[in-house]
Design a protein that fits this description.
Number of domains of chain B: 2
Distance between the termini of chain A: 63 Å
Number of helices of chain B: 4
Strand order of the largest sheet of chain B: 2-3-1-4
Largest interface: A-B, 32 and 18 residues
Number of strands of chain A: 33
Strand content of chain A: 25-35%
Shape of chain B: elongated
Number of helices of chain A: 12
Radius of gyration of chain B: 16 Å
Oligomer: heterodimer
CATH architecture of the largest domain in chain B: 2-Layer Sandwich
Shape of chain A: globular
Number of domains of chain A: 3
Strand content of chain B: 25-35%
Order of helices and strands of chain B: EHEEHEEHEEHE
Helix content of chain A: 10-25%
Number of strands of chain B: 8
Largest sheet of chain A: 13 strands, antiparallel
Structural class of chain B: alpha+beta
Radius of gyration of chain A: 29 Å
Structural class of chain A: alpha+beta
Distance between the termini of chain B: 15 Å
């Protein structure tokens, strides 16, 4: 590696991008590639929510121990010493909501704009001040150090949506009934797929981070190399970053996020590395998962590789479904090229790692110790159901005599086929047009299952602006009813604790 | 060519589109329609040759007609060419040329799906 750094210094270094490498290795073989290429540059530019910046404001007079702080009305964490703050990329602003957040503050700072700092102090003998307001630019901070706990995913699951409604997620807009597929990652240009066993990448590796020279701190949170989901924790100086490679974003109905441009140079030290840096998009396989299932274990729709994703279409259930990316391949290429240029100019030297990245990691589900209510725990199990042959008068009598304003309608096999509400009956009586339940019942009924978390049923009630959901078992038999009353009673109780 | 029809309260219940089709003998493709009790907003696609005739026929019936020449604007300083707009557009307005996203504005029906889907807020509908 010192030989390569020597060639970087004297300007004779030979650099290619990770996209150029596969054809080169095909042509020259790994032996030839080791001889002809010194460094392969990688790059990625995508939404990396797990990003943030440590800001040191310097001490005020009289001094303050900041307990809470806001930058342009975006809260930054103040529980670190007196004047160190941590501003997270996804923190939304208190006045502009999702359209402005921590990421936007970072962007404003590197664009040279002023930001308003507002802080509350924990008043002590040594820090007597209780609040302050001031206006700061990036140069006014002593340090502005970006530290991103989880960046540069090796690959990422693509997203689709099986439900009947459009979803707005951190994976973008997902159209109903598998109307599109949204994916993230830079495929074969991405850093980790070019060194998946961390032969070169390690603690202390110098990287390109948003236009600045940064470093790999270590493995990122949720680092899971054994399943092909390695991540990196990185740091860099915000003061040296460039807006071309750092962009604030807003995902509709999700919130702010930060697009981070990250590139790692990989020295072609041996044939093994040459072979690995020759990876192609089609060799990087990920999954399309269904975001329509609002549980942690989202089901996999199919496996897919990045070449297929980049092609613009993938097949799901026999249909051609359009794909599009959230990461920018265009800017990822610019990252790889900009990194290559600074190496060729002798400005960027490679660094040996001081410690390897672990080859085994952990990303387990959360241990949940507090109660986790299911629909089955709170539903009313006694539900009167009716057959569609009954008259409106009979239905009205049943509603008056029962506890709900809703009557689930069932077939001869006791399966749910519709629903009638007190409102439907009033409407029918007022218009005097229909005489039977079958003419007026809602056939498309939103349902709940007993093992569904109550929070999800509550969201369903809210989304569809309805007040009750029949609870059905696997055979579509009505076994209960969950209503907005259940939800509000429970919420009231919890609040009063 | 795409035309945006603004149908005023007084005439929204009348079969205006059918009347214009019969009158002008043009094929009219309704790309998007939002009609409520008091007004309507309809985007139609017509043969460029018959465009002015169709436009005149609607206007004669009291409909305000706007030609959607450049219905959507992409701010090139904001666009990062991710492509989030591509798969969600119902009419295929956006596509990649190399690694850059380009818009074929003639296909846009101003549904606005891309405006909210763009993470960089780089897309804006031209005011109608």
């Amino acid at each position: 590696m010192s030989e390569i750094n020597e060639r970087i210094r004297d300007g004779s270094v030979r650099v290619v991008t990770a996209e150029e490498m596969p054809d080169l290795v095909d042509e020259l073989g790994t032996v030839g590639a080791v001889r002809e290429v010194d460094v392969v540059t990688t790059g990625t530019f995508g939404a990396m929510c797990s990003s943030g910046v440590f800001l040191n404001t310097g001490h005020s007079d009289p001094p303050i121990k900041i307990s809470k702080a806001w930058l342009n009305n975006v809260e930054a964490y103040g529980g670190i010493a007196a004047v160190d703050l941590f501003l997270g990329a996804t923190q939304p602003s208190e006045d502009r909501g999702n359209e402005y957040g921590g990421a936007h503050v970072m962007e404003d700072l590197i664009m040279g704009r002023e930001v308003e700092l507002r802080a509350q102090g924990a008043v002590t003998d040594c820090y007597p001040r209780f609040d302050l307001e001031t206006t700061l630019r990036l140069e006014d901070f002593n340090q502005a150090t970006m530290v991103n706990p989880r960046n540069s995913y090796e690959r990422y699951a693509a997203a689709a949506n099986s439900t009947d409604r459009t979803m707005h997620t951190y994976m973008g807009t997902l159209l109903p009934r598998y109307g599109n597929v949204s994916y993230s990652g830079a495929g074969a240009l991405s850093p980790i797929p070019n060194d998946p066993d961390f032969e070169y990448i390690g603690v202390g590796t110098r990287i390109f981070l948003c236009g600045a020279q940064g470093f790999i701190v270590g493995s990122g949170t949720q680092h899971l190399p054994q399943e092909g989901f390695s991540t990196l924790m990185v740091k860099g100086d915000l003061k040296e970053m460039n807006n071309e490679f750092l962009r604030a974003a807003t995902f509709q109905d999700y919130g702010p996020s930060l697009y981070v441009g990250l590139g790692v140079p990989i020295p072609v030290l041996n044939e093994r590395i040459a072979k690995k840096t020759a990876v192609r998009d089609r060799e990087i396989v990920t999954e399309i998962v269904d975001y329509g299932v609002p549980r942690r274990g989202r089901p996999t729709v199919r496996k897919v590789n990045y070449e297929q994703l980049y092609s613009g279409f993938v097949e799901i259930d026999g249909n051609e479904v359009k794909t599009s990316a959230l990461s920018s391949r265009h800017v990822a290429r610019k990252v790889a090229r900009a990194l290559g240029d600074s190496i060729k100019k002798g400005e960027f030297l490679l660094s040996a790692s001081v410690e390897p990245i672990p080859s085994v990691g952990k990303s387990s589900p959360m241990k949940q110790t507090k109660e986790f209510l299911l629909v089955g725990d709170v539903m009313s199990p006694k539900v009167v159901t009716v057959r569609e042959e009954i008259s409106i008068k009979e239905a009205a009598q049943m509603i008056i005599g029962g506890t709900f304003d809703h009557l689930p309608v069932v077939s001869a096999e006791e399966k749910l086929i519709g629903m009638v509400t007190a409102w439907d009956i009033s409407k029918a009586v007022a218009s005097d047009k229909t005489s039977h339940i079958s003419d007026m019942m809602t056939r498309k009924v939103f349902i709940a299952s007993p093992d569904e978390p109550l929070e999800l049923a509550a969201r369903k009630l809210d989304h569809h602006k309805i007040s009750a959901l029949p609870v059905v078992d696997k055979d579509h038999h009505v076994i209960g009813m969950v209503t907005s009353d259940h939800v509000s009673r429970l919420y009231g109780r919890r609040r009063s604790l | 060519m795409k035309l945006m029809l603004h149908v005023a309260p007084g005439i929204v219940r009348k079969p205006i589109v059918s009347s214009v089709i019969l009158e002008t003998k043009s094929l009219i493709n309704i790309e998007r329609a939002k009609v409520d009790a008091v007004s309507g907003e309809i985007v139609i696609d017509v043969d460029p040759e018959k465009c002015s005739m169709v436009k005149a026929a609607f206007e004669e019936k009291g409909v305000r007609v706007v030609l959607l020449g450049n219905p959507i604007i992409k701010d090139e300083n904001e666009c990062i060419h991710c492509g989030a707009c591509i798969s969600i557009c119902p009419t295929g307005t956006f596509h990649f040329e190399g690694s850059e996203v380009v818009a074929d504005a003639g296909k846009c029906v101003q549904c606005g799906t891309c405006v909210t889907a763009c993470p960089q807020r780089a897309l804006k509908l031209v005011l109608k």
